Amino acid sequence: MGGFFGAVSNAPCVEEIYYGTDYHTHLGTRRGGMAMSVEDGVIRRRIHDITNTPFRTKFNTESLELFDKCTCGIGVISDDEDQPLVVTSKFGTFAIVTVGKINNIQELIDREMADGLSHLSEYGSGEPNPTEVAAMLICRCSTLEEGIARAQKCIDGSLSLLILHKGAIYAARDRFGRTPVIIGRRENAPGAPDAWAVTMETSAFPNLDFEIHSELGPGEIRRITPDGVTVIKKPGKCMQICTFFWVYYGYPSSCYEGVNTEVARYRNGASMADQDEEFKGKIDSICGIPDSGISHAIGYANRFGRPYQRAFVKYTPTWARSFMPPNQNQRERIAKMKLIPVESQIAGKRLLFCDDSIVRGTQLGDTVKRIYQKGAEEVHMRSSCPPLLYGCRFLNFSRSRNEQELAARRAIAELEGTDELTPEILKKYQVHGSKEYLAMVEIIRKKLNFTTLKYQELDRLLEAIGVPKENLCTYCWNGCDASLSEDKKEGK
Ligand code: SF4
What we know:
Blueprint (H helix, E strand, L loop, with lengths): L2 E7 L4 H9 L8 E9 L2 E8 L5 H4 L2 H5 L6 E7 L6 E5 L2 E11 L2 H10 L15 H10 L4 H11 L2 E9 L2 E5 L9 E5 L8 E5 L11 E5 L5 E5 L2 E6 L7 E2 L1 H6 L5 E2 L2 E2 H14 L10 E4 L3 H13 L7 E3 L13 H11 E3 L1 H4 L3 E6 L6 H12 L4 E6 L23 H10 L6 H8 L4 H14 L3 E4 L2 H8 L6 E2 L1 H4 L3 H8 L3
Parallel strand pairs: 14-23, 17-20, 20-21, 21-22
Antiparallel strand pairs: 1-4, 1-10, 2-3, 2-4, 5-6, 6-7, 7-8, 8-12, 9-10, 9-11, 12-13, 15-16, 18-19
Bound molecules: iron/sulfur cluster.
Iron/sulfur cluster binds next to helix 17.
């Protein structure tokens, strides 16, 4: 998916941007980059390949010296295209980073080319670069502000961005607020200059002495300078923030819409335990599938009254980040190498695991096999969210979300005897506890060899998060999203 960070101050702030960007490493796997204003109108930029080496080690002292004394800049961790891009335009030179997904990218290019656009240049991967397309849409308008608003409006998918322009940062949150964009303020911190920052993950703030100042609303645009923050475009009314930030993607110490990720996961785990009264006395210990399953499992264990134990530990010294090779087999191999079973916590025990979600299930199936090989008596699984039935149409994920491969879809196809899963068919399986739902869960349970399998109910998950549920995107579980009716109103 990717993440970004920016900072502006009256004093040099390259370290803030460097560390702030690095704190988004868990959100992307391919490229890491920084761009900073070095003197009036001049922007310097570096992009590194981070597929097998962390962002921080790529930006060695030498490349940081390039930005020495810079007081304004942006950085990005990208799951896909090369970023930041530096663009010379009628507005002057600017640097841009984006997070989102442009479903209608070719249609937008064709439309602008029919209307006089002569070329795009970032075709090194053989595909259009979405950040360049966003920059192109912006430059087709008469002001930067108008351009950002227009790009947000005509993109089917989502677009959050930072633009570095003339010593200021423009921050824009996508039209329906899928991704968080949060402003931080550092004031009177001993030994550090006053500064403003903008981030997707607030976990980037505490160690850099920033406090959360405010959060952009859906579609909102702000301009940040050392002197303060100006609202350029007010937020829209319809918010559909990605619920998966709390389930899986978000860093545990981050907050979005005022709700901390760790706390939401803990509450969700406790809520799952509340539904497992019948298992009291039948489970020896509770475990989490690292990383995000752990917070749900701790919440579960504390409510359930059985100890939380680590059946697996992650080998962090060399697998410090989510290295994602493009090949699925390699990905699964690496996922396996990262997790080391702790045999003495497994052998002879009835274990209950919490995982954030079940996507394809192949990796989880392999993990369960290893748990049995190490002598577990029973392996109960609790998924912290409902069965995934729809691929995400709003954000780009490196985690496989091919709809046909989703474990729940495969189970339904087996039950229905067809791969043509119409909305009517899928609807029956979405109803938690319906006979179709239970049959689907049973097929997955058998396939993955769990003693028991339960999925958290959608309403309970939303309740555990605590953000008003009409503001949360639930498309990947029920195919519903308020933005789709908003688009319809606007004739899209
Ligand atoms: S469809 Fe799922 S993953 Fe995509 S934005 Fe909505 S909640 Fe997030």
